[in-house]
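INFO batch 0412 | record 1 of 1 | parsing
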Amino acid sequence: MFTIIGGDGKEYGPATFQQVRTWVGDGRANLDSQAKRTGDEQWRRLGDFPEFNETGTTLPPTTPAPAAIPVNPAGPTLVDPKVYADELIARAGTLDIGGCFERSWALLKANFWSIVGTTTGLMVILILASLVPVLGMFVGLLFTGVFLGGLYAFYLKQIRGEPAEFGDIFCGFQLAFVPLLLATLVTQLLITAGLLLLILPGIYLAVAYNFAFMLIVDQKLEFWAAMEVSRRVITAQWWRMFGLILLGSIIAMLGLVGLGIGVFVTLPIYYGALVYAYEDLCNPPKL
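INFO prediction complete | emitting tokens
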């Protein structure tokens, strides 16, 4: 596991070798970036670590790399969900549930007020909206995925060492309003139908669709392709994802003990672990 200093001077990590290598390949870090291995105190050039020399990784071009989450997308990316998902499944390793929570906790400690403030702000907005009779219904049925898409975009930026701010929670309205809206409606419809019919299909889909909003805001997939890619990728490791979500839910609920203040910390840990799982399974290193 490695911690690196991003271009903004902030620390990011701990991250796995594969994740740091992906950052280098994407231009989010380079071999001159300062880094240290977990347990070490001394900072060194990333290129000084034998692991990165052995990969033959070269310095990225000096021109800025394109943003992972574009501000003005041209439109949804059309893909074959099966082919797209199969390629990700072949590249992804076994999901490390403990590692996802460990990295999420480290990320939270390094960016505490930004992450807690942004996550809490969104929760307050959703709670207040739900108190308004008609507005609450529309928010729950239509806009939940749009807001979550923005929140996931914020977490992805934090993880990848990109500038992130509170306003990112509203970016779903600009980036992919229609796909996020449709994904919200269709996933809720299918999950509800599965629960009403035999219960187990609903539980399966509730877990399997967890990456749909992230794929829409991050990879610009249209809503059905995002749902299908998410379902296929998660199905390959469904029980591990179920375990991560179950553990995350327990951790989040523990924050309600006492005065409930702890939920402001435990909920971001859960969201962070979920986004790290997305990075591991839907953004694995290229073979």
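INFO post-check: The mean pLDDT is 85.
INFO record closed
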